[in-house]
Amino acid sequence: MTYPxxxxxxxxxxxxxxxxxxxxxxxxxxxxxxxxxxxxxxNLIYDTAFHKYDPKTPAFVKFMLKTFVKSTVVGNKPYKKNxxxxxxxxxxxxxxxxxxxxxxNLKDAEExxxxxxxxxxxxxFGKLTxxxxxxxxxxxxxxxFSQFGV
Length: 150
Prior knowledge:
Layout: H1 9-19, H2 35-49, H3 59-74, H4 95-117, E1 120-122, E2 126-128, H5 130-147
Antiparallel strand pairs: 1-2
Helix pairs in contact: 1-4, 2-4, 2-5, 4-5
């Protein structure tokens, strides 16, 4: 499956349109997170990409992630429902704050473009190509928006 590029305005516009269909009380079709937690979770992934949030990942965990998880996260297959989430990526948060932060993160990724992401180090997978970053970020948002029916 080919995913839209996060560096294109049409993708940013599409994702913001889907985001605008959510509200704080939108119920998930599966999983344990509520809508504000899900938005916070999405923002943390962008925050790690932009080095606003930099959790320390032990070397052994990085090795395991790169060896067994990376191809699933950046590859062409969609994520499975009820996939496990790292505990540090689930928190309670304010819906409106997280919505505005996600819109800002989407626009920042588009504006920074592929050159910013090319060979950028990720927290768990090492250096990724701009295409891998795009796949990972788009797939992740799409997965969670689908989780909430938008």
